[in-house]
Design brief:
20% of the residues are buried. This protein has 136 residues and is an all-alpha fold. The chain has 2 domains: 67 residues, no CATH class; 42 residues, no CATH class. It is built from 7 helices and no strands. Helix 2 packs antiparallel against helix 3, helix 2 crosses helix 4 and helix 6 packs across helix 7.
C-alpha cells in the first residue's frame, strides 16, 4: 500500500477507475513510465505521485534490476537473527550440553548475563530449531 495515496495528484489516477493510488507498485510503475515514456522530469513525476525524488531513483534502480516485481515494498525489520551470532549460538549449545533441560527463558537470561544483549526466549527457540533443520 502507498503510504500517502492522498498525495497522488497525477491525472490518470483521478480519471481512470483502473488506477488505484493506494497501490504502491502501480504508483511507482506509473511514475517511472511518466518519466521514461512521456519525458517528464523526475522531480515533477515524483511530486505528482506523492513520492520524493530519492524514491524515484530507488524505484528506477529496483525496476532496472528486477522488473515490476522489484517495486513491491519489502517487509521492514531485520532479515535474520542478527543478535544470535555463531558465538552466541555456540554458547547456547554448550549450555544445553551441560544441562539439556534448560528452558529458552533460562537460556535468554544466560545470554543477557554473558553477552549483555537482550534476546527473546522465542528467538532462541527458533534459532535452535533452524540449527536442527540444517544438521543431516
Amino acid at each position: 500500500m502507498h503510504s500517502h495515496p492522498e498525495a497522488v495528484t497525477d491525472d490518470v489516477f483521478a480519471t481512470h477507475e483502473f488506477f488505484d493510488a493506494r497501490d504502491a507498485v502501480q504508483v511507482k510503475y506509473e511514475m517511472l513510465r511518466r518519466v521514461r515514456v512521456d519525458g517528464k522530469p523526475a522531480s515533477h513525476a515524483a511530486e505528482a505521485f506523492g513520492l520524493s525524488r530519492v524514491s524515484y531513483y530507488k524505484a528506477k534502480a529496483a525496476f532496472e534490476a528486477g522488473g515490476v516485481a522489484a517495486l513491491v515494498p519489502e517487509k521492514p525489520g531485520p532479515r535474520s537473527a542478527h543478535k544470535l551470532t555463531v558465538e552466541v549460538m555456540t554458547f547456547v549449545r554448550d549450555q544445553l550440553f551441560e544441562d539439556p533441560k534448560r528452558t529458552s527463558p533460562e537460556l535468554a537470561a544466560l545470554i543477557r548475563k554473558r553477552f549483555r544483549i537482550n534476546v527473546h526466549p522465542r528467538s532462541v527457540e527458533r534459532a535452535l530449531k533452524r540449527q536442527k533443520k540444517k544438521r543431516p
